[in-house]
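Example 128, ligand heme C.
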Amino acid sequence: MLKPFFALPALVVLAFPPQQPVPATPAPATGNMANPVKPTAESQAKAKKMYGYDCAMCHGPTGDGKGDIAMKPAPKDLTDPSSLKDMSDADLFAIIKTGKGQMPGDGDRLKDDDLWNMVIYVRSLAKK
Ligand code: HEC
């Protein structure tokens, strides 16, 4: 007679399975999440190198937007400190990871840590 009562928890578990284990990647970049990475000379040297390979052809070696490939809308002038002032680190992370408009994302090539370092590097292109 009590069986239905015992079956109920099992049904609940079936209907709402426990959360899938979260893959061991850093938390997804959302909202105003702060950059979890602390730049080092080494990580920034790597970011600079990757920028030269993956970004400079469109954004220009200095980030001024005058790369070899011209596009519409053109990328912003990253050497101008006002260009990125309204974008959070998480915004930049998302753009670099998944792309924006005609820009392809680099998420396949760069690990999340590298992407966060790229955010720091991109901000460092602004003239002080
Ligand atoms: C194929 C050309 C291309 C490549 C490669 C590229 N970008 Fe972009 N990027 C663009 C364009 C075009 C935009 C503007 C997109 C828009 O507003 O529609 C943009 C936007 C951005 C922005 C946001 C600021 C803005 O101009 O709107 C950042 C930051 C950025 N790119 C960083 C990078 C980094 C870092 C890399 C290399 C990992 C990279 N991009 C590679 C073309 C490119």
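Summary: Residues 38-128 form a domain with the Cytochrome Bc1 Complex; Chain D, domain 2 fold (CATH 1.10.760.10).
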